[in-house]
Amino acid sequence: MKTEHVVKDRYANAAKAPEAALCCPVDYDKKLLEAIPQEVIEKDYGCGDPSKYVREGETVLDLGSGTGKICFIASQVVGPAGRVIGVDMTDDMLEVARRNAPVVAENIGHANVEFRKGRIQDLALDLEVLDAELKKRPITDATSFLAADDLAEELRVTRPLVATDSVDVVVSNCVLNLVEPGAKPQLFREIFRVLKKGGRAVISDIVADEDVPDHLQRDPELWSGCISGALTEEGFLRAFADAGFYGIEVLTFDTQPWRTVEGIEFRSMTVQAFKGKQGPCFERNQAVIYRGPFKEVLDDDGHRMERGVRYAVCDKTFSLYKKTPYTAFFEFIDPLDGIPMESANPYDCARTTRRHPKETKGQDYRATAQTISPCCDGGSSC
Ligand SMILES: C[S@@+](CC[C@H](N)C(=O)[O-])C[C@H]1O[C@@H](n2cnc3c(N)ncnc32)[C@H](O)[C@@H]1O
For labelling, which of 14, 29, 127, 368 has a CA lying 20 to 30 Å from the CA of 289? Predict the structure, then answer.
């Protein structure tokens, strides 16, 4: 049986009655749970809490939203100015989430959550829209089968489930592992697509400390139980990098495994990754110094920098480093005479070169001055 059908069946049942084997203890903010009906809380199949990292006013997308708990928590954090979209492929999960949304809205005083049906590895295709269209033109033969394929392609463009560049933060709680191996690269590309430039993904999931052997991957119980579809710790981080993310960081890592199978430890990890390193590079004579504590660092664009050395960076890298998650690690040096963006020349970001201080100050700079006022009062010796 196809992995996806096994997963759908298991979660359809878990939407009807709580399944203890799927629950992993998570320390949610109790105050934020008060507004959420017990039915939703009981059918909690998460392994972390990515909602801790969303902010007021943001547009949040929750992948594999289940009965809606993370969406309902995020709804309170983003407030009335923000919005939350949950995506799930299982009708019974969507039914519970949609039925409870007005209850939560009533309790918190605003309604900003909606649930959409789709597969998280194909966030462009709205399965309910496709369903409605196929009722008008059912598949009866090979020709209508092929036409349905064309229709799906057209809907992805004309009526996408989640539009490109539309989301501030993509969250997910214990779902990515459930997607079949062949679709995982596309899943990460889809997360990247829907995020706005400067947006981020915060994903809690189960990871394995060793490669999961084939016989465990073929076990439907272990797969649908969020175990054997887990990527390794390293593979999980690499998947973000391969999709074009930068600033990838482990936010939480459970020291205790959730489960151990044949000596392989499966535990929860939360990872944050940013979209926005793509784009043209321009020379504006800016420099950065990596502050340490490591002897050197390597960023997701291949810049390798030694601690304490002044490096030339393009305007894009300079701006990226000034933001989370990099800013605390660097000193920033602007040129004495700034180069306006309109007259900046293209910069070759493929190389990392030192920036001589004369480049920032100007070749003719010969000043002798005391720019900082004396540190001691009373004209003493310092
Ligand atoms: C382990 S549960 C987690 C539910 C929820 N995030 C929570 O914290 O309780 C996995 C959920 O992801 C959904 N799911 C699994 N694979 C999916 C896919 N490929 N596309 C969309 N939803 C999926 C399931 O229907 C189920 O609701």
Answer: 368
Compute the distance between CA of residue 135 and CA of residue 128 in angstroms, rounded to an integer.
11
Query: How confident is the model over 134-157, as pLDDT tens digits?
Result: 999 999 999 999 999 999 999 999
- Residue closest via CA to ligand 1's atom 1 equals 45
| Residue identifier of the C-alpha nearest atom 14 of ligand 1 | 64
Cα 113 from Cα 91, distance rounded (Å): 17
Give the pairing type, strands 282-283 and 231-232: unpaired
253 CA distance to ligand 1 centroid (A)? 21
CB proximity list for 95: less than 8 A, separation 6 or greater: 15
- DSSP secondary structure string for all residues of 127-156: HHHHHHHHHHS---SHHHHHHHHHHHHHHH
SS3 345: strand
**pTM for the structure as a whole:** 0.95
Residue corresponding to tokens 């899943």: 187
Say if residue 381's pLDDT is above 60.
no
Tokens representing residue 40 in the block: 């939703």
d(CA 25, CA 45) in angstroms, rounded, equals 9
If you average pLDDT over residues 151-166, what whole number do you get?
98
- Partners of residue 332 on adjacent β-strands: 288
